[in-house]
Structure formats: structure tokens, C-alpha cells
Amino acid sequence: MKNFINTIQDIWKIEELRNKILLTLGLMVVYRLAAQVPLPGIDPTQLSGIANKTQDGLLGLLNAFTGGAFARASVMALGIMPYISASIVVQLMGIAVPYLQKLQKEGESGRKKINQITRWLTIAILLIQAPAYIVSLPSLGIPESAFLLGHGPLFYFSSILLLTTGTVFAMWLGEKITDKGIGNGISLLIMIGIIARFPASFMQEFTSKMNQSNGGLIMILIEIVIWFVVIFLSVLLVTAVRKIQVQYARRTVAGNIQDAAGARQYIPLKLNSSGVMPIIFAQALMFVPGLLASSDNNTIKSIGIAFTDMFGLWYNILFAVLIIIFSYFYTAITIPTNKMADDLKRGGGFVPGVRPGKDTADFLDTILSRITLPGSIFLALLAILPAIITQAGVQPGWAIFYGGTSLLIMVGVAIDTLQQINAHLLNRHYDGLMKAGSKRKVSY
Hints:
Shape: globular
Helix content: 55-70%
CATH architecture of the largest domain: Orthogonal Bundle
CATH topology of the largest domain: Preprotein translocase SecY subunit
Largest sheet: 2 strands, antiparallel
Distance between the termini: 33 Å
Low-confidence stretches: 436-444
Mean pLDDT: 80
């Protein structure tokens, strides 16, 4: 505890780091305040219907990502998710579109152009999602009396404009945090939205256990212990790597022999190279079977209903299979083993016992395929863990924090932010926050 307090004091001593953290916290507060502002023309006291429908299931997950703004019919109801969708589309298009491939190779200037394309695509997605959200409000449980301005053109135009502006404002906040603050701004906004629902979800579970004689305080303590174990396993999944040993040939420059011994002597291949993207892709596809529930055919309708229950058996079986498939797919398109092998060859490096070039690329691809299998299975188990936990009597709102996208995002963003803070501390020769970042002697 003493070391932790000393580290906090060290963080406060570094003016640049202190200002970055304060700016990040301030912009996140602005985002959360904006999420409390309801759309003009909607009575916020009559939103209990939509709140009930977003307690669990896919709508509950979407509501969790927006920090409850979706259920409040807020100007931030769509949150940052349209930007995430646009980023995924642009990333996938980069595989097939030559223009985007060219931009990816142009460095910083290409990245700026890709970001601009992503922003415009975000607005295009908003022009579809915002009207769909407004039209669906009555079916989500908002009574007619809640629409103070009725359903006229003025209400639709102003609401669509404000929802679009809200997401663009959130996108701007995220980019400002990334540029001027600490951590990845977009990821932090998603994380703060998820954490915002944590106290209410925990209190709901606490009340359920204490009032309904479902185990009382003992069960709460057991659930907390299990939760910490799941977090620990999630950290292992996010940080686990397979180190591929690499050797570098000696180089002679101006008559002097230089050894690359100071460079990293291994290639780190992550156990879960795809992060949470397989879960996001799988959840996007899981909306499709649910459309069958509106069919007139009873057999097809029953199948559709089975796949709309987020905590049901068949939903989670298909969900897990899709996650494993998308883990391989996303890893294959984002980890360029051929480029890694070429870069290694040009740098004078090689994997012991493997020929440089194509043989090295095949070797890396084989290793990556082998470690992706246990990583994808572990990821799938974490994704369906909330459904398993609910079978033990845990409330759905609290169960979401036991796995899936919510937990992995929180763990991943927390680790990334701590690593950035750690880097600032180590650059100033302070002890780091993380064990791997303890203070090192610097020779001049």
C-alpha cells in the first residue's frame, strides 16, 4: 500500500502526466453529463417502459455500452457505437479496396485520411440508425403521452439532428482524449459507459440476495470472489503471448562490428490477437436469427425466439461457435505473417532452425493458428459466462460484468491506460505502476 501511495505521489509530481490525467477525467465527466440530457420533446419521467425492456438481452448490452443513455432517450443514446461500426467497416474494406491499402502504407498522412473517411462513414451510419431509433421508441415501451411535441416532422428532424450531433461530439471527445490526454479516448468512453451501470447493477443483485433470502451476504461475497477470479483470467487472456525466439546477424559498419543484442530477441504472438472483435462480429450476426421470430411460420418463429434469448442455450452455443470462427478470421486479416517475415529478413534477423522468407512466414502462421485455438475457446467461454452465471440465480444486469465484451473492454482499456502511465513514470526514472515496470538504472 505504501508503494502504491508513493507511485500516486510520483504521478502528481510529473506536471505533464498530471495534466493529461486531469484532462482525461474532465472530458469523461463532460461525456457522462451529456448522457443525462434527454431529447427535447420527450418526458423523462415516462421512460420506465424502455428501461424495463433494456434490463437484459441484446438491448441491455447496447444500453450498457452507452452507460444507460439508450434507455434514457438521451442525446447520447447512440453513444460512440456508430463510430466503432464505421471503424470496423473501414478496417475490413482495407483488405479488399486498393485505395485504402495504399493509404495504410502512407504513414501518418494516410492515417489522417483514413480517419476522415471513418468520420464521414460514421455520419452515414447515423443517418440510418438515428431515424431507426426514433421510430422504434413507441415499440420500446414509451407511451404516447411522453412525446410532448407529438410525432411531427419537427420532432423527427430535431431528434435525428441531436442524436447525430451527440455521437459526433462523443467522437470529438474521444479524439481529444487520445491526442491530449492519457489512453485511447474512444475505448475510455466505452469503458466509462459500462462502469456507469456497475453500481446500479451491483445494488440490484445485493438487494435480491438480501431481501429474497437467496444466500444473503455469504453469496454476495462468493460472487465477488468469483468475479475477481474471472478478471484475473481475463487479464491473463489479454496479456498472454507466445515468444518466438529471433537471432540477428552481426553487421559491420565503418570497420566496426555491431551486434543487435540490445534489440528485442523475440517476436510476441498474442494468444488472443483479435481482442474483443470476434465477440462484436458474432453479436452483430446474432441479430439475424432473431428476425425469424416475426415469421408467420410457427416452426421458423420458434427457432427465431430461441435465438433471441441472450441467456438461452441455443443462442450461446451458436454465439460461441461464431466467436471461434471470427477469432481465426480476424487474426488472419490483421496479423500479416508474410510482412513480419520480410521485415525480419531485411533486418538481418531469423528464427533459429527456420529459413528466412516464406518458410519463416509459414512457421509463424502455423504457430499463430495453434495458439489461436485455445485463445478463441477461452474467449468464447468468457463471452457465454454471463449466461452460465444467470443459471446460478445471478441477476442479468450484474451477470454482464462476469464476462463478454463488457469485461474484456474494461480489462483491455485498463491495462492499456496503465501501460501509458507506466511509460511516463519510467521515462522520468520513477517506479512504475505495474510489476514489469520497476525502476531501472539508466547509464549515460
